[in-house]
Amino acid sequence: MEPITIEITTNSDRLDKYVTDYLKQDYDFSRSYVQSLIKQGFIKVNDNLVSSNYNLLIGDIITIDPKSPEELNAIPQDVDFEIVYQDKDIIVVNKPNHLVVHPAIGNPDKTLVNGLLFKIKDLSSIGGYLRPGIVHRLDKDTTGLMIVAKNDKAHKRLTEMLANNEIYKEYLALVHGNVEPNKGKIDAPIGRDKNNRKKMTVTEINSKKAVTNFEVVKRFDKFSLLSCVIETGRTHQIRVHMAFIKHPVLGDHLYAFKEDKNIEFGQFLHSHKLSFDHPVTNERFEFSCELPKEFNDKIVEIEK
């Protein structure tokens, strides 16, 4: 399917409605499917990623890459990751480094979702074609524990639990510098960086509340190992908050220093512990997983 370009000549509807109506005759996509195309970045305005409820203005240029459902459907692939726990409702996985969670532009396959589809017969449908079962995400270079839903009932409840801060999520982060004090709370809203769409930043503009609690686990000469417990789940939250207090995560190619881009491992950030009540049985679960070898090796290196 060839890309489509549209110039808006009069003030118009919100983006998802306009595109649904425009494509109706040739493609007959549902509005919810058009919303999924917008979310995945296949529909842009002025070459920018925008939300489905963006109100179109005179002069706006819409670009549409009208992917069919078949093209967007994630395929089963044998991908290496560990299943820590599984029952009929949920899965807990240990995500390795350099593994993207779900297909998107630039990463069409060989993601965690592709691996889940290869290993698991049933996943919840709420995430759609590209995010079946995905309740929350970890960045590509963040390792550790994630919860996946196997049915819609579990998915809906887990989403509610995340929104209500009912899931305890603790990370280990190796950051630049000696962090003072030993414990602290970063309560600073996070939104999209207006100068770089790939980055998030602490801002009062179009932002959402973000809270990270931290505690120093161990200090080294030029680094600190922190335990970070997040009360909210914003994109890049710990990475943005650590950079905000001038202690960016070591190896963070986006938010740390120029020399960090030379660290192939990426950011030293690990989802270490999860505690929550089972979304269906209410049984209390607690999981933890060890640091990746590369993370441990780096600690040994900087201890010398």
TrEMBL record:
Domain (RNA-binding S4) spans 13-76
Q: What class of enzyme is it?
A: isomerase
| Catalytic residues (positions) | 139
The domain of life is Bacteria
Any single GO molecular-function term of the entry would be:
RNA binding
The record's section on Pfam families has: PseudoU_synth_2
Q: Which Enzyme Commission number(s) are on file for it?
A: 5.4.99.-
Q: Catalyses which reaction?
A: a uridine in RNA = a pseudouridine in RNA
Tell me the keywords, alphabetical order. Answer: Isomerase, RNA-binding
GO biological process entries: enzyme-directed rRNA pseudouridine synthesis
Q: What family is reported?
A: Belongs to the pseudouridine synthase RluA family.
Q: What does this protein do?
A: Responsible for synthesis of pseudouridine from uracil.
In Swiss-Prot or TrEMBL terms, this protein is called Pseudouridine synthase
The organism encoding this protein is Spiroplasma tabanidicola
